[in-house]
């Protein structure tokens, strides 16, 4: 069937889904209700179950939704393997169907051949059903095929930054924290340790999209390649433009079609929680680690990791609001409204074409789904 045992068509909101587990879409859910789709609420472990909400996670990070296959992919860290004689946490990769069935696709991946996947920090879906996985711990970017073959796209396993024009697959890359796929198949990588955003050209060579390699915040109104970034992470593509979360300057940047960079959210150097209802550029966020753009390009969601919240920017008027999270880390349970549900260190995000947002709640070891409708 392809696409990692694809078996389920995309569910519509008006359909009652039978079977075990928590499906993506349930008849009667009010807009904005948070529903678990993977993980046992506030329970850490490595138990694997065919029912997604009975599968335990340890430290989930990356997430990506494949609309064509109606599958959600989630990266988790914590399964311990012997690597060079040392007990080491390696990455687990799960798929979840819209009926709530979970499959463990990878546990470490490549360890037998000496190239482990240590953390699936970020995931992007390739049109052929492959996945691109950023491993921030292992300093590599991989392609994971539908037949479960792992190929190195970038990085030699060392945390260093290579110059432009060198082969990506055999050159160092420092702590890749985000990935995105262009419609033409180009892979974009947030190189957190190198304070740059890179891309791989058609010849397999590394190129720079943004960042001059010096940590900091500068360059608004000028070319992105001359600007300073400080550990960029989340990256999403909006046509030929880009949004980037810059973790340690506590801002979100935008690169337009001419390659000009600007700050659209956050106050550089200020880690705080302020500004809801006003312009995003005057609001404060705290270590934004992931981004998700709705397919209609009207809302940009931010994993406001340090504030234990998800924020949303209205791209029509560039105002910001809190979408999910209360600021408390105390487990509040599921099936509450997003704004009434506690989050603990939100990480990966992805928005689906059928109107849902998937949120990795790393500290509570679960993945949520909720409608992107206003709360």
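^ Assign residues to that structure.
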């Amino acid at each position: 069937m392809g696409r990692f045992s694809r078996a389920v068509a995309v569910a519509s909101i008006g359909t009652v889904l039978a079977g075990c587990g928590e499906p993506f879409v349930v008849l009667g859910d009010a807009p904005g209700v948070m529903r678990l789709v993977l993980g046992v609420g506030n329970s850490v472990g490595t138990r694997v179950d065919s029912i997604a909400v009975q599968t335990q996670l340890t430290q989930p990070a990356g997430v990506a939704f494949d609309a064509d296959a109606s599958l959600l992919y989630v990266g988790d860290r914590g399964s311990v393997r012997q690597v060079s004689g040392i007990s080491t946490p390696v990455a687990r990769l799960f798929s979840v169907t819209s009926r709530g069935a979970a499959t463990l696709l990878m546990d470490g991946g490549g360890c037998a051949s000496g190239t482990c996947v240590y953390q699936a920090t970020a995931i992007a879906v390739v049109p052929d059903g492959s996945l691109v996985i950023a491993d921030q711990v292992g300093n590599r970017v991989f392609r994971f095929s539908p037949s479960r073959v792992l190929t190195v796209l970038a990085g030699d396993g060392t945390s260093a930054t290579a110059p432009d024009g060198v082969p990506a697959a055999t050159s160092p890359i420092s702590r890749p924290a985000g990935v995105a796929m262009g419609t033409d198949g180009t892979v974009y990588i947030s190189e957190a340790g190198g304070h740059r955003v890179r891309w791989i050209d058609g010849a397999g060579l590394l190129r720079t999209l943004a960042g001059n390699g010096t940590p900091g915040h500068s360059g608004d109104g000028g070319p992105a390649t001359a600007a300073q970034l400080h550990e960029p992470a989340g990256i999403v593509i909006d046509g030929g433009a880009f949004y980037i979360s810059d973790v340690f300057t506590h801002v979100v940047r935008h690169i337009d079609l001419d390659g000009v960079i600007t700050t659209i959210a956050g106050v550089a150097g200020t880690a705080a929680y302020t500004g809801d209802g006003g312009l995003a550029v005057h609001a404060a966020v705290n270590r934004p680690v992931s981004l998700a753009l709705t397919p209609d390009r009207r809302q940009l969601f931010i994993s406001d990791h340090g504030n234990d919240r998800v924020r949303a920017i209205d791209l029509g008027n560039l105002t910001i609001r809190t979408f999910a999270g209360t600021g408390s880390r105390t487990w509040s349970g599921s099936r509450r409204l997003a704004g009434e549900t506690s989050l603990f260190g939100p990480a990966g995000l992805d928005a689906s074409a059928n109107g849902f947002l998937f949120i990795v709640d790393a500290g509570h070891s679960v993945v949520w789904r909720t409608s992107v409708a206003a709360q």
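DSSP finds no helices and 24 strands in the chain.
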